[in-house]
Write a structure and sequence with these properties.
The protein is α+β, with helices and mostly antiparallel strands. The protein has one domain. It has six helices and seven strands, in the order αααααββββββαβ. Strands 1, 2, 3, 4, 5, 6 and 7 form a seven-stranded mixed β-sheet that branches. A hairpin with a 3-residue loop joins strand 5 and strand 6. 27% of the residues are buried. InterPro entries: DUF6634.
Amino acid sequence: MEPADPVMPHRPFASLIEKVRAALKTSSLQDVLHDNPMLLDLIVFAEQTVPKNRHLDINDFLSQIEALSKATPAPPALRKAPLLDPWCAVIDQGCPVLIGVVEGHPFLRLAGRMRSSPLFQVSRGQGWARTWSRFYRLSHYDHGLRDKWISRGGIREDAMLIRLED
């Protein structure tokens, strides 16, 4: 992963969207999914949120991913967003996610450790991130958190740190 620009958010899925759209012009969906395991993992995750009577359309899905990768938080919504402190971003099991200690999450206990849903944007300089399900406010970045979580069994040993420079 390339370092993030401190002004522009880091978007882990942006290049994947372009690559998949181009590949779908000349290849079957099955071949594209075979060549892009991160997309396949994301589809498996997304299908858990799609009503049983609805079919997941790949073009609609790519548009949804693109929208999540471009969305910016409105200040009032960001003030209400859960806070991660400390936190870092990793690729775990082929998917970019946030890990850290969360406060103010609607479903998780106070000061609970969490691994987020897929990560679509992170702006360390602006102090926010966007996952599949919500925006997060970001406080203290701790690149050593990856190793701590591996030692506790919170993420796999092959999880890779997404380097985010100041």
